[in-house]
Amino acid sequence: MSRFKKNQGQMVKRKVPFKRQFPFYVMMMPGLFFITLLFYLPMPGILIAFKNFNPIDGIFGSEWMDPLFKNFEFFFKSDTAKTITFNTLLYNVLEAVLVTVIAIALSIMLNELKGKVSTTVYKGAILLPTFLSWIVIQYILFSLLSIDKGIFNNLIGREVQWYSEPFYWRIIMPLAYVWKNVGYYSVLYVAAIAGINTDYYEAAQLDGATKWQQIRHITLPLIKPTVIVLSLLWVGKLFSGGLGDWNAFYTLPNNAGALYGATDVIDTYVYRSLRTLGDYGMTAAVGLYQSLVGLILVFGSNHVIKKIDPDSALF
Amino acid sequence: MKKRWLALLLAAAMVGGTLTGCGSSKESKGKDDTVELSFYMMNSPVQDQDRIMEKANEIIEEKIGAHMKLVNVDSATYAEKMNLMINSGDPWDLCFTASWGGINFYENAQKGAYADLTELLPKYAPETYKRIPEGLWDGVKIDDKIYASVNYQQWGAASRSGFRLRKDIADEVGFDWASLKGMPTLDALKEMDDFIGKALELHPEMIGWETSAIKSFYANEPLSWDMEEVGDILTPGWIRYTDPDTVINQFETEEFKAYCEIMRDWYNKGYVRKDGATVQDTSPDRKAAKFIAESTTGWPDSVDFEGNADMERMSMCTKETAPAVGVSNTRTVIKAGAGPNAAVAVNAQSENIEKAVELIELLNTDDELFMLITQGEEGVDHTYADDGTYSFVDGKYNFNYNEWQLGQSYSPDFTRALYDRNEAGDKQKESQTMVYEADKTAEVSPLTGFVFDATPVKTQIANCSSIIDEMVPALSSGSVDPETTIPEFIDRLKTAGVDDIIKEKQTQLDEWKAAK
């Protein structure tokens, strides 16, 4: 976390001779290598979005679409484009905010716990769902909500049709996401809080600050950079379902057509409509559109942050 | 100091080098000079496959001087994996192909992924070519070129649909099931209404009729409604057999409306599952013998021929747990899709296309080889009991009944499948003889040989298919009111461009007819 502390001192810009930076370049090499291999080399694949792609002719050999943007038509012409864009944004904002708030709250509480055994037990319990795959969660959910054998329906003694009423899923989807991911992010925040110099708290205690005041004036301001970095990374995925992990939206509703209105995000819609068609061009077009919007959002929000609080900006 | 950095750099470069090196190793050729041909098919893991394949390869090597490497891919991922291999240019020689389940025979053939077998088949696989009815070859042709070898099966190529219902309960209630024979599907459903009602009164724990999210008795069963799909079954655009020149939107018909209304009625009366719109897997219900009636495609039915074992039990049950009778009510047609229902394609990029066709011929004509691979060895993998019934030995080689993917199980002398060596086996042979005969006299679909090119309306198809996915399961299981939902459904389809698809299908069909 040392890099977040930099903003406490003044950054001095001066020329550093290459010789002294050389070790850092060597350390960067493996990372750079993989980024180049996995992200930059496949870049020409973007062309597929504008082509009538035929794998035998290859990316460069395939014919251009006529008109060039024909592959994009599919998404913008669909009658559900509005609904799924709304769903995607709604769930992403909801999930990002909920996860951040709850994870910070949890990590502060965990930090205050003194018993060694209890802390470990709590941390483990919170973190466990992170390691379950969505498929497993799908089955857990099904055993809870199944109409005739579901645990919920048997508890309340009524036959609630969970899988045909879209409204319930407006709550179930974010809830499931938070349940699965909050543990992971609270670990990040626990680490960020642990990095705060304990001198601050001692000084505050001497001055008679309450726990609440310590949290408000010391903990929260000092983990703000972590929150901003994570949020900026999320902003880039705002147009991808489930902040990039859209598995939940595909698996949890059990493919129930009645729920699509409430559970479909851009990715699930694209996957379902194009899976049997096997059309690479249209799929690539939607992917390109999502990434472009993401890129613009990242630059935009970074720009805004730079204006308000230059030290917290990502770049 | 400098030297140490240099060493580090070198090490990093080497790591990179080994990593990139991994991807480039190609699949190695078989031992010596014999060609190794890979054959991809859908199958669960098979016990003892090495033992059988070793024996099989002895035969194959002796006959055509090649080796076969049979690769089993799980059925859930087969379509995706095969399409991926085709699209990325991975090496393979032969594969099972079909026009259903996302395997995309037509699309891959149009793309040029499959080798053109028009001239190779008569030359290297004459027996195979001769044995199959001409109509089936038309089914795997695109622009007059054959792109796959049809696997002609023991149960024939013609389709006929109907119903299967519980015999014991029909007797109990006193239902004259034989009266359903030849009756239009709508009337038959109405006829069954009363029967299911009475049956459920006596057996309240049972389910009247099977509904699920994955199969709609209307959208997946055009034959039952005297219609046939033009191109992919789930895209809009079917024809009626009574008016084969006009492409219609199958969801805008009186039949669809009437069917949904019946299902709504049954839903309200409790004949079908309340969660039918979302149930993905009905096999637990089937295995528990819960259904009173179901649709079926098998025949000859119980009216035409007594003793067809498949008609005497409900799906996934035995004759003891769920005795049944079957009755078919549609015409007998060799559908346009019958050719690519099960076929074998050769990779256009393969280095050994001729050898691959020779292998197709060998699999289709060498009964010993075919029986070895599909049924294992007699006395080891399957045995005959004293009364002549055969059974597979537990824990031994078992091909999971997937012989239909490998080649033809059709054989006029019944030498390419296992039959009980007793009366039941004779019955089965007798019933199959009826099937073969019917194949020769069955109507051939007016669409045979027509291939729909979806490219001009891809956008519309993608958007429609998503709407169909969403609405059809709910409508066909009765969980929504058709009065309001069908107009909404049709409206949404129209916005998504369903009329463009119908028009395109009509234009292509007209052009094809004119060219013929």
Assembly status:
heterodimer
Q: What is the CATH topology descriptor of the largest domain in chain B?
A: D-Maltodextrin-Binding Protein, domain 2
Assign the CATH superfamily of chain A: MetI-like
CATH class of the largest domain in chain B: Alpha Beta
CATH architecture label name of the largest domain in chain B? 3-Layer(aba) Sandwich
| Global geometry of chain A | flat
What is the count of distinct domains of chain B? 2
Number of DSSP strands of chain B? Answer: 18
Report Rg of chain B: 26 Å
CATH topology of chain A: MetI-like fold
Average pLDDT taken over every residue of chain A:
87
Count of DSSP-assigned helices of chain B: 18
Helical coverage of chain A, percent range: 55-70%
User: Main β-sheet of chain A, in a few words?
Assistant: 2 strands, antiparallel
C-alpha termini separation of chain B? 82 Å
Measured between the Cα atoms of the first and last residue of chain A, the distance is 17 Å
CATH superfamily of the largest domain in chain B: Periplasmic binding protein-like II
Give the helix proportion of chain B (percent range).
Answer: 40-55%
Structure commentary:
The complex is a heterodimer of chains A (315) and B (516). With 315 residues, chain A is mainly alpha-helical. Chain A has one domain: Orthogonal Bundle (MetI-like fold), CATH 1.10.3720.10. Helix content of chain A is 67%, strand content 1%. Chain A is built from 15 helices and two strands. Chain A has a two-stranded antiparallel ribbon with strand order 1-2. The two termini of chain A are 17 Å apart. The relative contact order of chain A is 0.13. Chain B is α/β, with parallel strands linked by helices and 516 residues long. Chain B has two domains: 234 residues, Periplasmic binding protein-like II (D-Maltodextrin-Binding Protein, domain 2, 3-Layer(aba) Sandwich), CATH 3.40.190.10; 147 residues. In chain B, the strands form six sheets. Chain B has a five-stranded mixed beta sheet. In chain B, strands 8-12-7-13 form a four-stranded mixed beta sheet. A three-stranded antiparallel beta sheet of chain B has the order 9-10-11. In chain B, strand 10 and strand 11 form a beta hairpin. In chain B, helix 9 runs parallel beside helix 10 and helix 16 runs antiparallel to helix 17. The termini of chain B are far apart.
